[in-house]
Specification:
Layout (H helix, E strand, L loop, with lengths): L15 H51 L4 H12 L4 E7 L22 H11 L7 E8 L2 E12 L2 E10 L1 H36 L1 H11 L21 H49 L5 H31 L8 E4 H12 L7 E3 L7 E4 L1 H18 L6 E8 L2 E7 L32 H11 L3 E6 L5 E10 L6
Parallel strand pairs: 6-8
Antiparallel strand pairs: 1-4, 2-3, 3-4, 5-7, 7-11, 8-9, 9-11, 10-11
């Protein structure tokens, strides 16, 4: 039995591969972001630690001089010697006023557009205005970056502060450049990681793809032998494989029960239906004194019994096909003669609507002639349902590429292209069948029987409108006379 596939959703969810790839890249970017943040934090801590060490060394230089007589002058001279291009040190009164800063300028390099006095005042207001000692604070001025700290001192009996102003602009710019290089390296590394992850994820998801292919290959005719090999499955897929095998076991049991039920019921119904039809026919032919209505009713019983017998036979064919027990002969038979027999059997019931022009020579095909006639009868019955009441159903034989093609052509609405495969599935009917009675298995039986004979069935458009059903069997040469 063919597997029914659900139509793909127009908007599908991201695949597992896409999710893993995006999640992995986000994790990589998050790791690089953490690395850059840690680098900036460590760099800032390193600058401040170096400044604290510098402040401690300056304090060690100044403290001995602060205890000597004339401490203010001595400390001022000592501070002048400590000034460097990147370091400014000075004494500040408890009111926050620098103590003679020009003398202490020394070699401290300051951009021309920056006033030293204004810078020192800003530094005084920026950090520890109450005179207490504090850790280094950041000071921005005219695109320059400084670290400022204060150390309390007592000089000549007066509370003062020792101020350190360190220019760390070069260090900050170097760190910024390093950070940009790290960001560029992170971007390149992320791109390389994404390219590398594609084959890695493809290889990692190979068991899932293999599992999907195995599941897709399982149909209703292979439920009992389509088990997934659990010993070959990765540890992560073992629960899925186990549950799937258990589901297949339950489906196989249910399918077997349904098949046995259909097979048993079909056999049980076959005998009484045959008896009803034969007795109705005998009664109609032999009973005397029946009026026309009574004869019509007996004829109707006979025809319905014959139709039910064909339906039961169809169910039996399907049940045998599901059980792999449908074996049909592949012997040469005269297809033209078989079609003539079908016309003789159905001609009266069809009201003379069947048309068949026999080929000029005998046309032989390989198959089972009885089941071939059954397939043609099903197609004729199907055509008569959908064709206009007064239209004819054409039968035609054609040799084509080593095949004998039987055409059953009607003048009905035809079969849309998107439905031409689906109508041969069981219990599937086309869009024009809402008001037409039917079981939905006639075309499925035709497909099952023809394929069992090594042929194929299809449908196309008739030249003048309508449907052209085609049975294709292998062409054969006639049997030699004995």
């Amino acid at each position: 039995m063919p597997r029914t596939r659900l139509p793909a959703s127009p908007v599908s969810a991201p695949s597992i591969r896409q999710r893993l790839l995006s999640s992995s890249l986000l994790a990589v970017l998050g790791g690089y972001g953490l690395l850059l943040g840690a680098h900036g934090l460590f760099s800032s801590q390193e600058r401040r630690s170096y400044h604290r060490v510098l402040a401690a060394s300056v304090q060690q230089e100044v403290l001995p001089a602060a205890q000597a007589p004339g401490a203010l002058r001595t400390v001022g001279d000592r501070l002048s010697q400590l000034v460097s291009p990147n370091l400014m040190v000075w004494i500040e009164t408890d009111q926050g006023v620098p103590w003679r800063p020009p003398r202490q300028l020394g070699g401290f390099q300051l951009p021309k557009h920056i006033s030293l006095t204004r810078l020192l005042v800003r530094a005084s207001l920026q950090h520890s205005p109450d005179g207490t000692a504090g850790g280094p604070a950041m000071l921005q001025s005219a695109e320059r970056t400084y670290l400022i700290s204060a150390i309390p001192l007592v000089l000549e009996g007066r509370p003062m502060r020792l101020r350190l102003l360190e220019d760390v602009t070069t260090k900050v710019e170097r760190e910024r450049t390093t950070r940009l290089l790290l960001m560029l390296a992170a971007a390149v590394s992320t791109l390389f990681t994404g390219l590398l992850l594609r084959p890695v994820l493809s290889r990692g998801l190979a068991p899932l793809r293999d599992l999907g292919r195995r599941m897709q290959a399982i149909g209703s005719d292979s439920l009992d032998r389509g088990r997934l090999p659990e010993e070959e499955m990765p540890r992560e897929l073992l629960p899925i494989a186990g549950e799937f095998n258990a589901l297949l076991e339950r489906l196989a049991i249910s399918w077997e029960r349904q098949r046995d039920f259909v097979n048993g019921v079909s056999h049980e119904l076959r005998t009484p239906i045959t008896l009803v039809g034969s007795y109705a026919g005998r009664l109609r032919r032999r009973a005397a004194g029946l009026d026309n209505d009574e004869r019509a009713q007996l004829l109707l019983i006979e025809e319905e019994a014959e139709r039910m017998e064909r339906l039961v036979a169809d169910l039996l064919h399907l049940a045998r096909s599901d059980a792999h027990q449908l074996q049909l002969a592949a012997e040469p038979f005269d297809a033209g003669a078989a079609l003539q027999r079908v016309l003789e059997r159905l001609g009266v019931a069809c009201g003379g609507r069947l048309r068949f022009d026999p080929p000029p020579t005998q046309a032989f095909a390989l198959g089972d002639s009885r089941q071939y006639e059954h397939c043609v009868a099903n197609l004729i019955e199907n055509a008569l349902k959908y064709a206009p009441p007064e239209s004819a159903v054409q039968l035609r034989l054609q040799r084509q590429s080593g095949q004998l093609v039987t055409h059953v052509v009607d003048a009905g609405p035809g079969v849309p292209v998107e439905e031409r495969q689906r109508i041969f599935n069981r219990f599937q009917r086309g869009r024009h069948t809402a008001s037409v009675p039917g079981s939905g298995i006639g075309l499925a039986v035709v497909k099952t029987l023809i394929e069992a004979m090594g042929g194929s069935v299809g449908v196309g458009d008739a030249p003048g409108g309508g449907a052209d059903f085609q049975l294709r069997l292998r062409s054969a040469t006639p049997l030699p006379a004995t």
